[in-house]
């Protein structure tokens, strides 16, 4: 992993998409959850994310509708574009929001659909 070179200046997804160069936003988990609840309510199924690769709005409910298992959907939503389970034209992984669970567990996440 030491040889790991980012193709696009250190963006989290390393895929060369147009999110590269966009400012990353570090967000603590509690703040992120509060923001989501303010936007979409407490039901995580309804939280909407925008894929930085294709711009598609997606929620956990959308994943569940594709028969993705509930526990997997929690890992996937906001991180891997739902299009992976459909046309596979967008294979986006990670987004510009650096969701900070702990100082050693920072997850590049899609932005909310504001
Ligand atoms: Zn996408």
Notes on the protein architecture:
By secondary structure, this protein is α+β, with helices and mostly antiparallel strands. It has one domain. Helix content is 22%, strand content 20%. The strands form 2 sheets. The chain has a 3-stranded mixed sheet. It has a 3-stranded antiparallel sheet with strand order 3-2-6. Bound molecules: zinc ion. Zinc ion binds next to loops. Zinc ion (ZN) binds next to loops.
Keywords summarizing the entry:
single chain; alpha+beta; 3-stranded mixed beta sheet; 3 helices; 22% helix; disordered N terminus; binds zinc ion
The SSE string, one letter per element, is EHEEHHEEE
The total count of helices amounts to: 3
Helix content: 10-25%
Silhouette: globular
Indicate the radius of gyration in whole angstroms. 14 Å
Main beta sheet strand tally, sense and closure: 3 strands, mixed
Strand order of the largest sheet: 1-4-5
What small molecules does this complex bind?
A: zinc ion
| Strand fraction | 15-25%
Overall average residue pLDDT = 84
């Amino acid at each position: 992993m030491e040889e790991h070179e980012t193709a696009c200046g250190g963006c989290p997804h390393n895929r060369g998409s147009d999110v590269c160069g966009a400012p990353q936003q570090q967000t603590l988990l509690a703040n992120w959850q509060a923001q989501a609840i303010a936007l979409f309510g407490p039901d995580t199924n309804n939280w909407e994310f925008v894929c930085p690769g294709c711009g598609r709005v997606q929620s956990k409910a959308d994943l569940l509708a594709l028969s993705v298992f509930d526990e997997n959907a929690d890992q996937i939503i906001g991180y891997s574009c739902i299009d992976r389970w459909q046309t596979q034209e967008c294979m986006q992984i990670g987004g510009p929001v650096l969701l900070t669970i702990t100082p050693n567990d920072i997850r590049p996440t899609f932005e909310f659909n504001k």
